[in-house]
Amino acid sequence: MAVSLYFGGNMTQGKLLEFVRDIGISISSGQLSNLLIQEHESFHTQKQQVYQAYSPVVLGNTTTATGAGVGGENFTCNIICNPLYSVYCTTEKKDRLTVLGVLQGSGECSFGLNQLTLKLLETFNLPQKVVSTMRQLPQDTLVSQAQFWELLHTHLPQLGSQQQTRVLEAAAIAAYHSSQTDWPVVQALVCDDAPQFKWLTEELSLCWVHEGRHYKKLNPSIAYHRQVLEVFLTEFWNYYRQLLAYKERPTSQAAPELRRLFHQLLTTPTDYWELEKRKYLTREKESELLLVLEHPELSLHNNPDVLGARTMVQRRLHQLRHSDSNGNPGMGHVSLSRGDYPQVRCELHRICASHYTNRSNRTTGTDDSGQSRY
């Protein structure tokens, strides 16, 4: 019951403690905390199994990130999901290497030297001297991060910190796509336009809802400009609805027409300069925003991730404190790498959280107090 109410019902630990005491259960806050975070290895195992099995089932996995407090420090909660599952992982950073580690399930990256590495180095605009040096190193090899750092310090000791980061990212992405055998490679991500998500997958689809928010942030002071912006937003969301209709019934004739309407929407001139600058930035993302015309199965937004993140933010605001490094909810909300595991299975099978946790407890031979019944 405690696990179901905390994770499924989003009750804070304080309210949960008050509830169980009100119904006549004598329990300390420390014991309640242990019930929520201890001896749940079966959930961790099932989380990894679900993530590994269902991440490649559909083309596009959606992703986003939100803040998470751990031991009084700011961490990041990464949410990955598709229609079959949602997985939460808490990490210290939210850079490209971190997201890549989350996509691999283990949180750790391998590093490879091959043609894709060299291609990415050129894409990242690194100096030709760096690319030439990397080309001379043994190719088609897979090494750990410590070994790769040793290679960099030996052969490229003068690299700046930003260049080192770009080289690490190129090698990690190349290893992910070329040498991944234990974990399925995600072919496409649906996300916002945060830089850490770029180049990780073969294809990237941007969220239309996030793109629309850029226009909502415009605050014209002239009445005429406010009217121009209102008209544009109406046309913008009408076009979005046309894309939704296309997803339901895609045709080869509709795709070119939708591309034409996209250009018409964003190239029709107005007298509002701030709007024109925003429209130019949207046009630069055409391939990512219109990837759905090539793959109608992709989502047009990452709202499922955002809703998952919102749940955890609300819990954090209610708790008003942070978890410790073990994800101890007695000090705040559960660290998501150790928590919210019941939600993975419950979303997949559309079952009640309490039914799932009770069934899992029977499987492991424990009751709701965490004590063995055998």
Blueprint (SSEs and pairs):
Layout: H1 2-8, H2 13-22, H3 29-37, H4 41-54, E1 60-70, E2 73-82, E3 85-91, H5 96-103, E4 111-113, H6 115-123, H7 128-136, E5 141-143, H8 145-155, H9 161-178, E6 188-191, E7 203-206, H10 208-216, H11 223-248, H12 254-267, H13 273-283, H14 286-289, H15 303-319, H16 341-349, H17 353-364
Helix pairs in contact: 1-17, 4-16, 6-9, 10-11, 11-12, 12-13
Compute the number of helices: 17
Give the low-confidence spans. 320-325, 327-349, 364-374
* Morphology: globular
Summarize model confidence as the mean pLDDT.
80
Cα gyration radius (Å): 24 Å
Helix and strand string, N-terminal first? HHHHEEEHEHHEHHEEHHHHHHHH
For the largest beta-sheet, the strand count, sense and barrel status come to: 5 strands, mixed
Number of domains: 3
Distance between the termini: 20 Å
Can you give the helix content as a percent range?
40-55%
Structural class of the helix and strand makeup?
alpha/beta
Strand order of the largest sheet: 3-2-1-6-7
Measured by DSSP, the beta-strand proportion falls in 5-15%
Strand tally, please?
7
